[in-house]
Write the structure tokens for this entry.
Amino acid sequence: MEQSLSELIAISRAFGSDIRLVWAGGGNISVKTGDGAMFIKASGTELGQMTRRRGWRKVNIENVRRLLDNLLERKAGADNIKTGLLNACCDGLPDAGMPSIETFFHSLLGRCVIHLHPMILLPYLCSKTGQKRLRQILPANMDFHWIAFRGLGVVTAGQIRNCISRKRLDLAQTNIFFLSNHGIIVSGPSAAGAAKIIQKILTACRKNMPPSKQIKLHAVKKKTLQIAAMIQSCCEQMCSSFENRKTVLIAPLYTPGGIPPAKQWFHGVITPEELTYLGAGIVWLEKPDRNGIRKAMHAHFHRTGLWPKAFFIPRHGLFISEKEENLSMYQKVFAQYLQIRASAMRLGGLKPLSSKYLLGEGL
Ligand SMILES: [Zn+2]
């Protein structure tokens, strides 16, 4: 097996098996071969499940960059992305899936590129003062580039292309990019070196956040079970896609210092992941009666175009409504998102996404 591919598999499996760093099909890692090609995770696959035989594609870097130039200069449209990326593949594997939409920014960077969405970093990326706080907590020699959220995929690649040329970045060295409301990219000469930098950043983020403590909630009683049943029936009534789902209480819950959640924590959508997979965030339910639940669900749908899957009810806790096979992962992810929102509030307040950036070829 080629050295670059074995490096890619080792690092993808190491990072991709930790749900606190990346979950579902999120995140992406690539390693360049030195003769104009790059191995990268395939779209829709999970980093942690990559093997010698599946979960990756090999692409011709020049072809990917040319496609990106054409897309950014509007010589090609969003409908050219899929065929363009498939045509850039040079691994002779016709059924291996599409290279990820993030292949574009990987193609512009150094030999090894690690892109993750770490839970401990997201509060910094989703808060008003995050950029400033990261400058304060990271060592002075750990310089980084801040990329404001304007979209995903092609849009992010365009921003990174501009950053590289404006700052004349040396891509043979390590470069760190923080993508606002999204994640981290570390580009460097080796996978092990880039991995070490990521660990250092995450340690600094963790050290500067108060330890998580359990939130005090009512014990699960008849009333809590009634609320779960009410949410379940409202969801089923309002949207047929909620049939075959189960509503459960997520417990225990943790926040920095154990502070109980407040209404303003649940304002807006803070990451594209929340929009794509989490029903556009958690709904605060002051009044957990039938009318209150219906009203809150309608308001959420009106604002985001999505039916909510998660509800926080003061003193009772966090309820989610999900398909049974996804329950265990979504319970963990929603509990983590509660912590991200709590921590971002501590860092000067949430900085939600502007809906105008969530459309078009960027996604
Ligand atoms: Zn990402």
Observations:
- The first helix runs from residue 3 to 16.
- Residues 222-362 form one domain.
- The first strand starts at residue 28 and ends at 32.
